[in-house]
Amino acid sequence: MFAVTQNQSALPKPEHSEQGYDTTEKDDCTQGSLPLTLSFVVLTYNTRDFLRDCLNSILAECRSLASDLVSCRVVTVDNASSDGTYDMVQDEFPSVRLIRHSKNLGSAKGFNAGVAQAVPESDILVIMNSDIIILPGTINKMLTFLKEHKEVDGVSCALYNPDMTPQRTRTSIVRILPQDKSKPFRAGFPGTGFAMYRAETFLRVGGYDETYYFYNEDLDWAARAKRLGCVFYFLPDASAIHIGGGGRRHNVSGILKELYRSNLYFYRRHYPRLAWLAYLILKAEIAVRIRGIERQISRLQSNEGLEEYEQQIAILREAKRRMQEEYRKPSTPQIPRFAG
After folding, report:
1. 33 band by pLDDT with thresholds 50, 70 and 90
2. Average pLDDT of the segment spanning 285-297
3. Of 204, 219, 245, which marks where a domain is finished?
């Protein structure tokens, strides 16, 4: 299903920094002895240039940490990119462990492949997309918070647009009232965009449910973690730039075809009494979208653009078919377990 490329050379040994993560005794947030092993799992699909900036920011953060106390590793999962991503990583980042899929398997399977590689040899995992640029000092702040709060299983941080305006960040599975994000607070939803976890948390919760293709796999994981009593926090003073879009723009049709089915599956899994209502609402939404496209077609003065509109309708009808099939015959969860 996938190939793993791993250069024998380790990451360049970072220089010691007084600002780096520091401790003089065994850290209870790890299961082994020092140095603490920190692994970054990065998922990418046709985001070569974004990924280059992402990996450079990771390596910069690794160099800022105390090398005798933190050992960094990077695993990049390439979901069958066709833009030269694989060659770029091999040529420019030889120390990065690279997993290459033969086709785009989606977010859940992609992240699971990276986590499976990283968990056995890691104390801490950073799960992130390739359109993230970590700002200086962020990893140290997140590590320090986990060291000082042994009961916390993972942390997320503030995200910014490329122009450094604040980006709206989801921190809960369901929330009605706004959350004060000026100080650390307990969060129900850390996400997969950029978050840090204790590796042992994945041993408890398992991986992302591979029934999801794109979207909701992180919500599902957070809901399962919550039921097990896992604790997550949001840290406003730790930050990263999230460019947004990334690989999604190259796979719009594939994502849309699965979106409604996965939404219904999520409700059936976690809010079963509302599944029937979710089904009706989602079905109505598809109908409204199709009707809107049909109105646009009726206004065309020529056949220019007609084919694109017809493709959009075909995609929505396929999405409806998959959702109806999910409603009639619910999918079985596909949640992998990892060996520590």
Report:
1. very low
2. 95
3. 245
Let me know: does 328 contact 279? Beta carbons within 8 Å: no
Task: Give all strands (DSSP E) within the chain, no chain letters.
Answer: 2-5, 36-44, 70-78, 97-101, 124-129, 132-134, 154-160, 185-187, 194-198, 232-242
Contact 164, 148 (CB under 8 A): no
Reply yes or no on whether the pLDDT at 258 is more than 70: yes
Q: What's the pTM value of the predicted model, to 2 decimals?
A: 0.84
Give the three-state DSSP class for 172: coil
Of 222, 233, 321, nearest in space to 269 by CA: 222
Residues 110 and 137 in one domain: yes
Q: Is the bond preceding residue 35 a cis peptide, omega within 30 degrees?
A: yes
CB neighbours (10 Å) of residue 135? 19
Q: Are residues 98 and 115 part of one domain?
A: yes
Q: Determine contact, residues 106/79, Cβ cutoff 8 Å.
A: yes
Under the banding of pLDDT at 50, 70 and 90, the label for residue 132 is: very high
Q: What is the mean pLDDT of residues 86-91?
A: 96
DSSP output for 308-325: HHHHHHHHHHHHHHHHHH
Q: What range defines the domain where residue 295 resides?
A: 251-328
240/258 same-domain check: no
Residue 195's nearest CA partner among 245, 259, 145 is: 145
Contact 160, 242 (CB under 8 A): yes
- Residue 236 CA, chain-centre distance (Å), reads 19
| Alpha-carbon gap, residue 74 to 87, rounded angstroms | 16
Whole-number Å distance between alpha carbons of 190 and 60:
23
pLDDT of 141 higher than 80: yes
Crossing angle of helices 306-328/275-298, nearest 10°? 170
205-234: per-residue pLDDT in tens?
A: 999 999 998 889 999 999 999 999 999 999
Q: What is the pLDDT of residue 122?
A: 95
